[in-house]
# Entry
Amino acid sequence: MQHYMLLQRNLIYTGITRAKRLLVVVGQKKALGLAVRNDQARKRYSGLLSSLKESIK
# Structure
């Protein structure tokens, strides 16, 4: 629950669907429930786009 801002349905979905052979979910049931109910995707500012643009120049 410490990183509640990352508890988003789309991030849980991505993690689950990327599993190839085995998936182990570790955490609090409350946190997973909160993530599943949270369908509000937030804008992430990773700086990736600007880094890619700089590498092309």
Remarks:
- The CA atoms of residues 19 and 43 lie 24 Å apart.
- The chain has one domain: 4-56.
